[in-house]
Amino acid sequence: MTIRPLSFSSLRTVPISERKADADEHDFGSPYQSGGSLADFLCSLPNLGAGGDLFLLRDAIASAHRAGRQVIVGCGGHVMDSGLSPLLAKLIEQKVVTGVALTGEALLQDVEIAMVGKVLRYRDQDLRDGRFCMTEETGRLINDAINMGATENWGVGKSVGSKLVDAELPHLEHSVVATAFRCGVPLAVHPMIGADTFTLHPQAHGESLGTAAMYDFRLLAGMMAGASGGVIINVSSSVVMPRLFLQAVDAARNLGKKVEDLTTAVIDPAASSSSVADIVGRLSQPGGRGVWLSGPDEILLPLLFGAVLDSLGGDVD
After folding, report:
1. How far is it, in rounded angstroms, from Cα 232 to Cα 236?
2. CA distances in angstroms from 219 to 100, 166, 196, 237, 244, listed in the order given
3. The predicted structure's pLDDT at residue 25
4. What are phi and psi of 231, to 5 degrees?
5. How far apart are CA 49 and CA 285, in angstroms?
6. Digit-coded pLDDT (tens) for 234-263
7. CATH of the domain at 235
8. For position 122, what pLDDT does the model report?
9. Which residue segment(s) compose the domain that 215 sits in?
10. How many domains is the chain built from?
């Protein structure tokens, strides 16, 4: 068979007036003018792509705050590593964030920031010497708190928050856990035994860890039970938090709670396809919408909540 080029002389064209527009000039970006305000900068961003998603999430958070609905933030350890704990602590104080869920690594980082005011990292040399996960003071404080709190039927978050406040540590103003406890905002911590280093400390007791962690998962399910019309944001956790949010909302619905119309978001430059599918696709349904802001959380989270606070103006403390 001989293949010949097609002639396009009879090709049918479409008038530009019949084309559907995805955006108009009002959605375009514009140059930022020196000396402008944050509002001016935000107005200079295009209302398209990630910019449009940022504005959608901003408006959802502001609307939820004004309506008294939940704004729940789930965090992996990188959020604390990135120096964002003071931002989250202030948002808790301002009642913009109404609930928090942390991985065990995020808890550990938060406690160490409260203790020494620094982000501490493990060294490869410590792994070779068998000291990779054996920080004495951090493990002792967390486990003493959990062991004591278990006798009161407290979760990990409340137990450690109470301990931090009582200890009057020098950098307590930077602690998300302590601020949530002080402000009465629910905070659930979800440790992984063996993976989170404080669970290997000599003071760690499996029965206390298990009891407290189970309480905090039930607490997260309680948050999700009352989250209809609210906002769920997962920041820098591709494995633990997405599954926890799904299981928590499933448990709430199993018990007859109606959870719908959620605005959900993933803020993570390296989010896995499964975490995006779980948070943006599944968790937002029925009736909601989800976005993925695929950039660094140390830039996007301050930008997002700066936009939220600018939008709320006098409606926030």
Report:
1. 13
2. 10, 23, 20, 19, 12
3. 87
4. -130, 135
5. 21
6. 999 999 999 999 999 999 999 999 999 999
7. 3.40.910.10
8. 64
9. 47-315
10. 1
Q: Does residue 181 fall inside a structural domain?
A: yes
Burial of 294 (0-12, 13-18, 19+ CB in 10 A): middle
Residue 280 domain-assigned (yes or no): yes
Provide the pLDDT for residue 172: 94
Is the residue at 25 inside a domain? no
Asked if 161 and 148 count as a contact pair (C-beta separation under 8 A), the reply is no
Cα angle at 230 between 227 and 232, to 5 degrees?
Answer: 85
The residues of the chain scoring below 50 in pLDDT are: none
Span 59-71, pLDDT tens digits: 999 999 999 999 9
Answer whether 164's CB lies under 8 Å from 149's CB: no
**What does the pLDDT read at residue 29?**
92
pLDDT of residue 132: 62
pLDDT at 133: 62
The contacts of residue 83 (CB under 8 Å, 6+ apart) are 119, 298
What pLDDT score was predicted for residue 316? 83
